[in-house]
Design brief:
Distance between the termini: 64 Å
Strand content: 15-25%
Largest sheet: 8 strands, mixed
Shape: globular
Radius of gyration: 23 Å
Mean pLDDT: 91
Amino acid sequence: MENTADADVTAGEHGLRAVGGRAPRHAVVIGGGLAGLLTAHVLSGHADKVTLVERDRFPDGPESRAGVPQDRHTHVMLESGQRALEDLLPGILDEMREHGAPSVAMPTEVVQWQAGHWYRRTAPTAHVLTGSRPLTDWLVRRRVLAHARVDTVQGAEVTGLLGDAARVRGVRLRERGTAARDTRDLPADLVVDASGRSSRAPQWLTALGAEPPHEETIETGLAYATRFYRSSGRDEEPFRGVFVVPNPAQLRGGILMPLENGRWSVILSGLRGAEPPTDEAGFLEFASRLPHPVLHDWLLKAEPDTPIHGYRKTGNVRRRYDRPGRRPAGFLAIGEALCSFNPVYGQGMSVAALSAVVLRDALAGGRRVPTTRRVQKALFDAVRQAWEISAGADKNMPGATGSALRPRLADRPADWYLRRVQQRATGDPRVGEVFRGVLSLTAPTTALFAPSVVRAVLLGPAPWAPTEPPAHPEEQG
């Protein structure tokens, strides 16, 4: 079957192109979260006008909003995401630090439990930014919306796509709070869906007579609960973070990280049947059942700053827009509308930034005209490693369900090897460095199979790993 998305669209030597080779007059981005903002920023370098359509109204400062329900939970920006964000918006990392976003050195400043042991707190090989999600969104938003070619339609939702199975030509809008029939059309040469994991684009494409993408899912039933705290004299602690990583034998996890303005975030997580409560007594009791009382002891001395917020939309969902099919030109999916991960792995913001860089590079031109399908394939490739990490870990959790669980005999040796990597990473600084690089998306998965790593994992002596949280970083020679 012909894939119409291979016809005419996207970018050439002089930037984004629509039908007939002219520059598109108008691009529409659905969703004003981080992925949508960065997409609008990229497209502003190609289109005469970019309209960002958002169901909410943006706050004036770093405040939570209903359209980002997960912004009341712990967020981290991995090193890969930091590099991508700085590449897109030079100086943005300095702005984040100036507004108090902490940078936490791994593994030096964190006590981390994984695979039955605590990590040695050796010299740092990675840093994560742990500022709140409202702060990150606000700083990015004010930079992006300051661009003369970026406009917004706020307080409105997209109800469908305009066009047909061959080409998308815009979106249909409805102001929130109005009758279903009160809609208006917003024509566009390109529409990018950045509306998140609850995207309705598959239904919209079906309504045009096009094929929706096949969805791959893995669901563990994981739920988490988060509360923010005031510092309350916590500066005397010999660490800046706690990270208890669950596994198939230990279904509960917990994370402590610093925020801006002297605050801290604590997130507790548990799989189906071991969900953390959102009442104070239950929250504390849940923390007391982690493998070690270090986080529970911290909570007993902390000063709560917010209520406890729960969250349960944690399944991994990948929409295969990259596969051949009858889909229209002039439409792309990006961010969690393309691939959403179990949020507990902390990949979402970084993947949004990495995907925007890939979009920018795909539209930069070259010998091959990047059709819609080719750009979509590039965006799919950008999320592949994060999917392999998140879905790969979740598929081994007890009670996991979903269409992507297909067991393969070939996976068993790799799963055994990766379990051994995790065990060795806690005590072997070299293995730990490579493992962190892969998880931070700064190194490819193949780095775990480099000869020196394989020798350490399979043939090296069992490294010393602490059985109790190391009180202080190791002295460096």
